């Protein structure tokens, strides 16, 4: 008997300490077990009142702990995803399940959430993988309201319109791929604030204007792919000084057209000469 009671109390204390849920469940089960016997065993009204109060408390705690632990996506990010969806056209209904209640719980296509950690009451969007889904329409500036995003893949769709400057407000973004779309407008200078980003894959779009020299402020960038766009102006010499840059693809023909005097006939600045990097002409 002793061993059983010791081990069971050990078990209870262990589960109590390891799982917050167990406390209210324990209360609840205790009361449910006791209530039917109250006439025979617990003769005093006082006891019954204590039981009823305990049951209420247990139920309340259970509800509270369920509320706290049923982790759902941060409501700000849910509304950002809905705004992103509204700006996109989806003729093949690849985003059919983006109507379901919670993007994490209901596993919306292409939405990958953070692991349930106890730091925060909510989950967050960690990755958005919407590649090759025949999506058209435009990119909502509300993409900038997904602050935990590390991977953004929108390649191989027919998305048009500009890259919102709000995309530069994603402090954790590492992979940024929008190649093979119909994106136009210029590359926002705000992208220089993406301190973690390693990959810019913007090739095969309709981007125009000057490549911002501010991109050289991105410490971690490895790949900048800008080929097959309508960029003009010159190739900023500063990009040649990015320590980690390994691949820079640009279509130099259009750059050359507008600005062929800037570098004495050569459009590739000297700063690129010493680097083991690839520039596609
Ligand atoms: C995309 O569109 C093509 C036809 O244009 C179709 O064959 C293909 O199945 C579509 N893919 C998806 C994922 O919707
Ligand atoms: C990108 O555009 C070039 C030129 O139009 C084309 O040859 C190439 O196939 C395209 N790449 C992809 C992956 O679509």
TrEMBL record:
SUPFAM superfamilies: L domain-like
One Pfam family linked to the record: LRRNT_2
Transmembrane spans: 20-37, 49-68
Alphabetized UniProt keyword annotations: Cell wall, Leucine-rich repeat, Membrane, Repeat, Secreted, Signal, Transmembrane, Transmembrane helix
Gene Ontology cellular component list: membrane
InterPro entries for the chain: Leu-rich_rpt, LRR_dom_sf, LRR_N_plant-typ
Location in or out of the cell: Membrane; Secreted, Cell wall
Domain Leucine-rich repeat-containing N-terminal plant-type: 77-114
Family (UniProt): Belongs to the polygalacturonase-inhibiting protein family.
PANTHER family per the UniProt record, alphabetical: SOMATIC EMBRYOGENESIS RECEPTOR KINASE 1
Protein name listed in UniProt: Leucine-rich repeat-containing N-terminal plant-type domain-containing protein
Organism: Ziziphus jujuba var. spinosa
């Amino acid at each position: 008997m002793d061993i059983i009671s010791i081990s069971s109390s050990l078990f209870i204390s262990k589960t109590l300490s390891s799982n917050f849920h167990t406390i209210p469940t324990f209360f609840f089960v205790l009361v449910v077990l006791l209530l039917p016997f109250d006439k025979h065993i617990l003769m005093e009204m006082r006891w019954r009142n204590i039981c009823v109060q305990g049951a209420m408390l247990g139920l309340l705690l259970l509800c509270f702990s369920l509320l706290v632990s049923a982790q759902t996506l941060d409501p700000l990010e849910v509304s950002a995803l809905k705004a992103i969806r509204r700006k996109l056209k989806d003729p093949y209904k690849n985003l059919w399940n983006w109507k379901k209640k919670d993007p994490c719980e209901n596993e919306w296509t292409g939405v990958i959430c953070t692991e349930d950690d106890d730091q925060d009451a909510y989950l967050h969007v960690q990755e958005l993988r919407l590649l090759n889904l025949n999506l058209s329409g435009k990119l909502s500036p509300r993409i900038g309201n997904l602050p935990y995003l590390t991977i953004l893949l929108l390649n191989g769709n027919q998305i048009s319109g500009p890259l919102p400057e709000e995309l530069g407000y994603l402090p954790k973004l590492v992979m940024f791929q929008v190649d093979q779309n119909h994106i136009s407008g210029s590359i926002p200078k705000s992208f220089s604030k993406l301190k973690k980003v390693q990959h810019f894959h913007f090739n095969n779009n309709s981007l125009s204007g000057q490549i911002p020299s501010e991109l050289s402020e991105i410490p971690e960038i490895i790949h900048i792919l800008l080929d097959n766009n309508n960029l003009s102006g010159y190739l900023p010499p500063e990009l040649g000084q990015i320590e980690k840059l390994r691949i820079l693809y640009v279509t130099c023909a259009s750059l050359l057209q507008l600005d062929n005097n800037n570098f004495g006939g050569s459009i590739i600045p000297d700063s690129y000469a010493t680097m083991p990097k690839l520039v596609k002409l």
